[in-house]
Every structure is written in structure tokens, then in C-alpha cells.
Amino acid sequence: MYGKGIWEGLKVTLKHFIMSYVDDFRFGKKRYYNEEGIKHRSSAQTEGIFTVQYPEEKLITPEEFRFIPFLIYEEGEDGTQQDRCTSCGICAKVCPPQCIWIVQTNDPETGRPIPEPQEFFIDVDICMNCGLCAEYCPFDAIKMDHDFELSVYNRHENNIFNKARLDKPVSYYANIRPRNYEAEEAIRREKEAKKAARRSG
Amino acid sequence: MTDQTLEVTDQILARFPDFVVADTRKSFEGYIVQVENLIEFATALRDEMGYDYLSSVTGVDYLPNEQMEVVYHAYRSTGGGALVFKVQVPRDNPVVPSLVSLYPGADFQEREAWDLLGIRFEGHPNLKRILMWEGFAGHPLRKDWREAYYEEDGKPFGSRWPGGQVYRVEDKNPFGKNVDYPAGFAPETWIPEAEAAVYAGVGKVEHPNGDGLDTEEIVVNLGPQHPSTHGVFRVVVRLDGETITALEPVMGYLHRNHEKIGERNTYLMNFPFTDRLDYLSSMSNNWGYAMAVEKLMGKKANPPERAEYIRVIMAELTRICNHLWAIGFLLNDLGAFFTPSLYAIKERELILDLFEATAGSRMMCNYFRFGGVVRDFPPGVLDEIKKLVYDRLPRKINELDVYLTNNEIVRSRCEDVGVLTPEDAIAYSACGPVLRASGVPYDVRRADPYGIYERFDFDVAVRYHGDVYDRYLIRLDEIRESLKILQQAVKDIPEGDIIAGRPAYQVRVPEGEAYGRVEGPKGELGFYVVSNGKPQPWRYHIRAPSFINLTAMEKMCLGQKVADVVVVLGSIDIVLGETDR
Q: Do residue A93 and residue B346 have CB atoms under 8 angstroms apart?
């Protein structure tokens, strides 16, 4: 019968329409504007509405999500900031679009480089968010951020990030990437324990 | 396969003792053919030895030897390894006979080699620039050609570290000063020759049935700004009434000379750039590139077992994503405004969530490394994949099938439209779903297996009509086969390492050449890499399936109505990031 195929198809759209209400009903709780609801709406069980009302609602970013690097500093108890970066330059060497510029600090007396950056620039217009810098940094000093809302009115004035703009405390990192942070800390503790054992033994 | 290759070697060298020699450079393969005898050689290859599928044609500029080399990769459409042959010509006057008459699939690729390397193909019916425009000075892939933003021959650039002097490229090289014109070229008064040739067809012609009506053929531009060209892509068609009498795809609007960038980059840096070729299926692109370089690196870059499984899982999920997208947007092209595509995209979205959780990005995954992958699945991801491949996706694919396949409008718009015969499909070097929908069961995963595909039980989907409808159906079939592979892979995946050796940002790639090809969602995706032992590849070429599948587009469209161009294009499934590179 001509038109049967179209009718079968329309039944599918009708089912989608009805299921979006049934799914709300089945969930039992408020399914919008809360984290639990968003999670359910983007899970494999969902039948109903997928969309998220940005910016009122935001998708939950997974831990590995990467966007624009930042630099980590350790906070001392007295409020001092200690950069993890030693300006070794591996991130600048590995960066595919070459958007990282590092100025090494030189000792004013001897003229020899000392392991901390004097300046650190990232041109975020050029950065392609590949994450290679964070992947190959031997000091866990540069990591990829989760903050993706970076629109500005004037990119020429705002979009070359300097060190002050890039610096973030280690607690921020521990907050956005708890699993990675824990793993790295565990390795560090192990290394230190070994070192201590060697020294005493 | 080795026996077969040996046999062929003896056969070829015995058959052509005068003008064919084996390529004896270290880690190079294939034969070097005298340029005068290329046609004779290729004819024998095609007609006597069954190498009927010319996969890739490209050039290499060997500047230190003052030589240009054209590299051909031919295959048997029944399966097996490559037969590589090369011709060498002097660099100051590179002229090579064109193989278009033997292998029509060489058409666009020879034009590309002319455009980017300046190798002239004698006898080519339409040898003009394809990716660059006519007012462009020079041939950019030549090693002595320098771009406007030139800094150094290879990255990393010295100005970045240790005394980083930050600057903005557009300040150094402002708009208007970043273009060179050929000598004597005036952009203001220039009338494009190529355009003139296209439009020369416009004119009064006698109507064939001689009824005295004053009719003429007209030329219509579809694109470059057209929602159904899936990007910035132009199709020039000549019409008799509504019937297409000639068609020419015009591309290059998104050209960024990916290959030149690739030759400035170090090996590792190319991974994120390959993501941006076919930006719907970055995982497959990563794999093709990783494979080519791993071939050069040899045994130490063999991925561990778990990494092999992860690669298969990711590549097959990518295939599902891509085919869902292709089906959805084919329906959009047919005029079913966004309901089918949104149903398809919904499922794709769930897969992208898993990519994001694992690789860190939804589309620009940058997930493969030489000898493995970046990181293991985070906790919970594998379970989510299981839920998808065992339960949700099979259900949803069936739903899509019910929804669309028997729809009378879809059938009447798609059946017997844009037919490509199997002979033509092979001759035009069509690949992927386009080739298999024409009744040629050729799938690199089976024809020339890579990774661990030999372990999985799956069928090569094939359909026999070669029309748009079959190209739609075969994508559904392939999703089902991919699900079959995935179900086996997630069940069998072992624990273990995910990368061979320690991750290193500097990789040593020994001298030599390698061609890695994978069955990407759009077809055979090949990476041809030549290394001279430096940190950057000497030559980095991509055999892009979307680009080469367009060669057959005129064949599919001739005699069809103009409204079908959009549908045929949708059924080829191109991505401009890859077509234009």
C-alpha cells in the first residue's frame, strides 16, 4: 500500500514525542536545571529531551576535558607562591602551532639561567587545545583547563595570556582534575619515600 | 601475501628488464620505471597483472638530488598488498605522462600534484590548479617555496624559548602583504581562465530533435555558499533544461596546505592536525597517520594488546558517528528538515560524550600516539560503551531503519539516482561505502588487514545497485557490522599497557618511506610519509577519501536532474576539511 512507509515513519516521530513526556514522568523528580537531571538526560537510558538550556544549564565536563593550558603554582602556608614551572621549554618545543613563548630568568650576577620563568605567554587565538604541553611536561606544571567561556570584545588586547593570567593555584587543579591529581601526588610521595629511604639507608 | 608479492616481483622484473628496476634505497619499496615507458608499464599492470585500482598518486620533491618523483600505489580490487611504482624526472622540467586514460581516478590527484608540486602531466585532459587558485605564485609543496609567515624550515622555532619574544603574526605580516602574485598578474583586471573555460559551454546549441525551438544550455553554480554542499564547495553544472550535461566540482576554498604544515611539524605535532582533516572522524585519521609512522619506526612501536583493542573500539565508534551523521544529513539534503538528522545526532552525541571523557575532546580527539594511545579509559567509560553497543545503538539503528528505509519519498528520490557501475567505481578509484554500494566488496580491514581486525568476526557490507539508496543502506549495514566488532572487542579487551615504551615527545624515525592506510568511515584513508631521519617528515601526503570520491561525481550525475546533484553529493559523504586539506 502506498504511504505505508511514511505512516510507519510517522509512528516513530510520534513515539519520540510521547516518550519525551513519559521519560520526564518516569524520572519522578525535576529533570531540568539540576545536575542529576542533566546527567540523566545525557545518559544511555534517556529517551526524552537531550538538549541543555545553555547558559542556564551547562553540560558536566568530564575530568579529561581540555581547553587552554594554565600554569600551576604551589601555595605556601604563609601565602607565598612557588611556580612549578622550571622554564625547561619542553612545552614550547612540543607545541604544534608554536603558541607558547617562554622567557628564562637569568641570574643577575652569574648570568646563568635559574629554573623559573621570567615570563610565559600563550597566544590563545592560536592554541589548538591539543593538550600536548600538559602531556609532556615533566614537572606537572602546565595543565589543561576546564573553563571554556573565554569570549572577549577585543581579542588583540586580551588574547595573549601572560604569566599572571595563566597562573592558578594547585588547589584549583586538584578541584577540576581530582583523579589525575591524586595519581600524580601518589607518584610524588612514592619518589620522596624512596629518596628518604636511600638517604637513611 | 608474501608469496604473491615475490611472484609479482619476479614477474615484473622479468617482463620489463629494460626499463624497470627495483627501488633499492634503504627502506623504500617498489619499482622505478623509466618515464618514457610509464604508459606501457601501467597498461600491463592493469590488464595483465590485475592491478586495476590506482589508489594514490603523489609527488615528492627531492631537492638535494634535483629530482621530482611521482609515486603510485596500485592495488588489486580483489585484495592484497600494494604495488608501488615511481618515476623520476628532473626537478627543473618535471614532465610525466598522465595516467588518466588508464585510471580515470588519477584525474584529481594528478591535478593536485601539478598544483602543489608543479609536476606537469602530459595528456591530462584538464590540467589546471585544483586546490590553489589561478592567481597563486609558485607551487607550495616544493621544498624551496616559502610561505608568507615563514620562520624556519622546521619546528620548534628558536624564537619561542629561551628568550621568547612574543608577537602576533598579523602584526608582522598584515593583511594584503601576505599574498604573492605571479609575475605580470594584476588581480584587479584578471579574468579567470578556468572560469572562462567553464562558461564557454554556455551558448546557443541546436536542440537535438531539431524541432526549431530556440534553446540553449545554461551553466549553474551550486555553491560555494550553499547549505547542501556541506561546507564551502562549489559544483558547476551545465544544464539542458533540467538535465545535467556536464559537471565539475570546484574546491580549495578551505585549503590551508595541511601537507606543508605537516612537513614543518615534528612527527608528534602532526597528530592534532590530522584531527582537522575529516573533523567528523578524527580517531580514524589519527590511526592512519600513526600506522604510517609506526611502519617506519619498526618493531619497537608495536602497540601493546590493550592499545590495539582500544584503537579498534575508537575507530569503530567513529565509524558509527560518521555514518549516523551521513545518513542524517542525506535526509536533510532530501528536504526532510532536521528531524531525521537530529535523531541520528542524538545517538552520535552519546558516543562523543565518551570520546570527551577518554580523549578530552569531542571531535578533535588527538588520542593516538606512536605505539599506542594517550591514556586508558577512565573508570566507567567501558561500561558506558557496553551499554551503548549491546543495548541502545542496535535498538536505535533499527528504529532509524523503520523510520526511513521504506519511506516512499526517500525511495522515489534515491532509487536509481546517481548510479555508479562497479567497473566505473574501480576505475575512478572510488573507496569506502561508495565503492561497496556499487557491488565491489573491497574493505581495507579485510583486503589488507591492519591492527587486529583479523581476529573479529564481521562481514564486508556490500550492495549491488550503486545508486543513492544503496549508498544509504550500506551505511546502515556498516553500522551494524561495526556494532558486531565492538561487541566482540569490549568483551575480549585485556588489561595491560596502553603504549609501547615510555611516552616521548621526540621520536626518532629512521630513513625510508611508508604508506599506511586504514578503512576510514569515508573510505580508504592513506598517509604517505617519507623520512630522511630528521625530526620533521620530508614528505607527508594524505590520500583523502572525500577528495578522490569526488572524481566519480560527474559520472554519477550525467543525465540526472539538477535537483539530484545535492542528493548525490550527500550520498558520497564528503567533509571539506579533508577534501581541501
A: no
A121 neighbourhood in chain B, CB within 8 Å: 164, 166
CB atoms within 10 A of CB B301: 21
Convert the pLDDT of each residue in B19-28 to its tens digit. Answer: 888 888 888 8
Which chain A residues are within 8 Å of B414, Cβ to Cβ? none
Residue corresponding to grid cell 619546528: B155
Which chain B residue has the Cα nearest residue A3? B408
- Give the CA dihedral B342, B348, B349, B352, nearest 10 degrees: -160
Nearest Cα to Cα of residue B111 among B84, B129, B93: B129
Q: Which of residues 127-156 of A touch B (CB under 8 A)?
A: 128-132, 135-136, 144, 156
What is the CB-side half-sphere exposure of residue A126 using CA atoms within 13 A? 18
The interface residues of chain B toward chain A in range 318-347, judged by CB-CB distance below 8 A, are: 339, 343, 346
Spell out which residues of chain B touch residue A9, defining contact as CB-CB under 8 Å.
402-404, 406-407
Q: Is A14 on the interface with B (CB under 8 A)?
A: no
- Report the SS3 class of residue B268: coil
Distances B47 to B11, B50, B86, B98 between C-alpha atoms, Å: 14, 6, 19, 17
pLDDT along chain A (201 residues), means of 10: 84 89 84 85 83 87 91 85 87 91 86 85 90 90 90 87 89 91 90 88 69
pLDDT tens sequence across B510-551: 889 999 999 989 999 999 999 988 899 999 999 999 999 999
Contact A132 B505 (CB under 8 A): yes
Interatomic CA distance for residues B326 and B321, integer angstroms = 9
Three-state SS for A54? coil
pLDDT single digits (tens) B8-56: 777 777 777 778 888 888 888 888 888 888 898 889 888 888 888 999 9
How much is the pTM? Answer: 0.89
Q: Which ipTM did the prediction report?
A: 0.90
Contact B549, B434 (CB under 8 A): yes
